Amino acid sequence: MGVLADRLDNMRVRVQSPGGKIAAELRGRTDVRLSFSPESYRYFNEWDLERQLAALARLLWAARMREYYAAVSEAFGETITGESPPQTWRDQEYYSARDSIVAEGRSADGRIQLAVRGMTEWTVRIADGSLRTLTEDEFCARVGEAAAELISDQFAKIRELKNQIYG
Asked: What digits encode the pLDDT tens for the residues 85-94?
């Protein structure tokens, strides 16, 4: 494996929600782990937690992209802070279509649903009553399941799009 692949496979980024009551960590490419500050889980309701998790997802994605570009910079020996502008009509078509991709993931029990459009518009849905019936550890595990499925869906849709446009 090359330097870039190794760095991405071993990536670790961690962020906290506004207010600092929830933290999320991305390990490697797909392992998302959620944690709450002590005793805070029991004070959330589904609606507020949906908003907090959507904000946390935006922060985690931004941190992931910073780490990704740091890894790319290391691999190529020059500072790279973003993707290059489109060079061809295919590139323009790809960027436009990629920004419209909707990726989705849900927990195995269906209680947690995540969706993102263009990796910018995040939506989190928590089934009513979930916070009363799931322990904190169970809830965090369900979010991890949904996040892994969303990431896999995003990767699959990107591969399919690349094949359609460049294949």
From this structure: 999 999 999 9
Question: Residue 14 is which amino acid?
Answer: R
Sequence-distant (≥ 6) Cβ neighbours of residue 74 within 8 angstroms: 3, 4, 7
pTM beyond cutoff 0.90: yes
Report the SS3 class of residue 143. helix
Tokens at 83, concatenated: 């993707």
Radius of gyration of the chain (CA): 17
Q: Tell me how far apart the alpha carbons of residues 95 and 118 are, in angstroms, rounded to a whole number.
A: 10
Amino acid found at 23: A
Query: CA–CA separation, 104 vs 117, rounded Å?
Result: 9
Q: Render pLDDT for 50-102 as a digit per residue (tens, 0 to 9).
A: 999 999 999 999 999 999 999 999 988 999 999 999 999 999 999 999 999 99
Close Cβ partners of 64 (under 8 Å, ≥ 6 residues apart): 11, 13, 26
> Are the CB atoms for 81 and 69 separated by under 8 Å?
yes
Residue 13 bridge partners (DSSP): 26
In 3D space, the residue among 37, 51, 42, 29 whose CA is nearest the CA of residue 124 turns out to be 51
